[in-house]
Design a protein that fits this description.
Helix content: 40-55%
Strand content: 15-25%
Mean pLDDT: 90
Low-confidence stretches: 9-13
Strand order of the largest sheet: 1-9-8-2-5-3-4
Distance between the termini: 32 Å
Shape: globular
Largest sheet: 7 strands, mixed
Number of strands: 9
Length: about 300
């Protein structure tokens, strides 16, 4: 049987065996040094216990959750790094549902300002964001700020799925190569949308303290700062899968305005909290679909000077 990550229905026995083997995987002997380890290897026993504490769940339940998360990450990478038949990709793209599609179409029709689209690495965030951006005019400039550059196979599949509405290599900006001045220039040029993620792993960019899972946590402050500094709105959205469909949830557009007596940083903290609060209920319903689940304990500590490597 030929396996494709673009098919929602996976063979039951092989997937069950994969999950069983993932549960048997030994704990890492030390904290992750690279993102590749974090995505595909089992965390240390101490980190596993901390994740169990965050969820108020027994460790064996969390072990199963983390095993599902590793399988989710594997399937995502297969969709991103292997060229598939156009018909399979097209059927997969058709499974993405945007319940607020008409609201979004009305928004982009009435409001042509540049905007920051904010999201989290949840579900198939790659095809989710591509689905949303495919609704925009081809005359609009669209960019994504990524941790790592996507390969040719990824863009080949996106073109097969979205045709002229697909994002190309020139739309991808790398976090390690792009500064706020470049992003500001794009936004101020007008008629542009930039997708920024609010959950880059601790240590990779500037963060601010907010509340998450009833605890103090640190999430990226960059999207909020950039919006306020350039007076452009933010539109939060998140992707998650249920059964054979993926759903895009849109939040209310956030205007780039400070409240009376707020400083820039205070306003950015308030907006970042709003973004994290938008993410939290979707995360709690689909924790195994969050790409960085195994790194959760790091979000509860103020980032140090030794971040996880991007590789």
């Amino acid at each position: 049987m030929i396996y494709s990550a673009f098919k929602h229905k996976h063979p039951v026995l092989p997937e069950s065996l994969n999950l069983f083997l993932e549960k048997l995987r030994p704990n890492a002997g030390q904290k992750f040094q690279t993102l590749t380890q974090a995505l595909f290897e089992r965390p240390t026993l101490d980190d596993e216990n901390q994740i169990a504490y965050a969820f108020r769940q027994p460790v064996n339940i969390v072990n199963s959750l983390l095993a599902k998360n590793r399988r989710h990450n594997c399937r995502f990478e297969q969709r991103r790094n292997k060229v598939e038949r156009a018909s399979l990709v097209q059927r997969y793209c058709e499974s993405f549902v945007i319940p607020q599609r008409e609201d979004y179409l009305n928004l982009i029709k009435k409001d042509g300002r540049s905007r920051i689209v904010t999201s989290f690495h949840c579900g198939d965030f790659l095809y989710g964001s591509a689905s949303l951006f495919s609704l925009d005019s081809n005359q609009r400039s669209k960019y994504v700020l990524s941790l790592n550059r996507s390969c040719d196979a990824c863009y080949s599949n996106l073109t097969a799925g979205f045709d002229r509405g697909a994002l190309g290599p020139k739309s991808e900006l790398l976090l390690c190569e792009t500064d706020s001045l470049q992003l500001s220039g794009i936004l101020r040029a007008g008629n542009a949308s930039i997708l920024l993620f609010c959950d880059f792993p601790p240590g990779l960019n500037e963060t601010i303290e907010v509340k998450f899972l009833d605890r103090q946590a640190w999430f990226s402050i960059g999207p909020a700062i950039l919006a306020l500094a350039n007076r452009v709105p933010l539109l939060p959205f998140i992707n998650h899968s249920t059964g054979n469909s993926s759903y895009l949830k849109l939040g209310s557009q956030i205007e780039p305005e400070l409240l009376p007596s707020e400083t820039l940083r205070m306003g950015a903290k308030r907006i970042t909290q709003d973004l994290v609060s938008f993410f939290e209920p979707v995360f709690l319903e689909n924790p195994e679909q969050w790409r960085f689940l195994s790194l959760l304990p790091g979000y509860f500590s103020k980032p140090s000077s030794g971040p996880v490597s991007r590789c």
